[in-house]
Amino acid sequence: MGKFRLTFGWILTEDGYLISLIKGDNVYKLNEVGRIILSQLLDGKSENEICEYISEKFEVPLEIVRRDFEIFLKKLCELGAIEVTENE
């Protein structure tokens, strides 16, 4: 997995909204887990670090967190909200 950044025109607000400034109708309210995942991705954390943190914080089995992480990451990519800046 590489490092990620928000694609040009997208912002993440402190209160958890993911907004496209180019397409005003693209506004998504992230739940707490979504905010944690996206914030930590943007901070350069690895998939393992993020998944282990969420697993411990919410007491959810790691394999479930990993599955949900992949689904969320895929959705962010499909929306065009994030892009890979470098590969590890």
Short description:
The chain has 88 residues and is of the alpha+beta class. It is built from three helices and five strands.
> What is the general shape?
globular
The name CATH uses for the topology is Arc Repressor Mutant, subunit A
Nearest-angstrom radius of gyration? 13 Å
In DSSP terms (H or I, runs of 4 or more residues), the helix count works out at: 3
Q: Can you tell me the number of structural domains? A: 1
* Cα-to-Cα separation, first versus last residue: 6 Å
For the sheet with most strands, the description reads: 3 strands, antiparallel
For the largest beta sheet, what order do the strands appear in spatially? 2-3-4
Low-confidence stretches: none
Q: What is the CATH superfamily?
A: Winged helix-like DNA-binding domain superfamily/Winged helix DNA-binding domain
Would you list the SSEs in sequence order as H and E?
EEEEHHHE
Fraction in beta strands: 15-25%
Quick check: average pLDDT? 92
* Computed structural class: alpha+beta
